[in-house]
């Protein structure tokens, strides 16, 4: 249990570092660069093309949330997945996306669904459970 707490704390510090702005630069670091460099226990990265294939072109919608729609899909190994496609990116939704990838993606608990992966491609964002 202590290990999980430290992992979440490490993720929090990594996320805090992402949003920290130095006095000369008013823009946060590139999310693309951050996700590329953050390799410790991260979920798998999927392409948008893969997600379209796995969800049969997003044909089976199973829900709608505050940040996007959720679709049922299936991986090539027949494992059933849920894909949450995030709506238009805002600063708040970008922060939520990073938080989900960094923290929920590394939590292991019997009563929580773990994020298997994510998609970050141009303006497209998705989380895969």
From TrEMBL:
Keywords associated with the record: ATP-binding, Kinase, Membrane, Nucleotide-binding, Receptor, Signal, Transferase, Transmembrane, Transmembrane helix
Membrane-protein topology: Single-pass membrane protein
Residues that coordinate or bind ATP: 84
Domain of life: Eukaryota
Domain Protein kinase: 56-129
Localization in the cell: Membrane
GO molecular function annotation: ATP binding; protein kinase activity
One GO cellular component term: membrane
A Pfam family: PK_Tyr_Ser-Thr
PANTHER family cross-referenced by the UniProt entry: OS07G0415500 PROTEIN, RECEPTOR-LIKE SERINE_THREONINE-PROTEIN KINASE
Protein name: Receptor-like kinase
Upper taxonomic lineage: Eukaryota, Viridiplantae, Streptophyta, Embryophyta, Tracheophyta
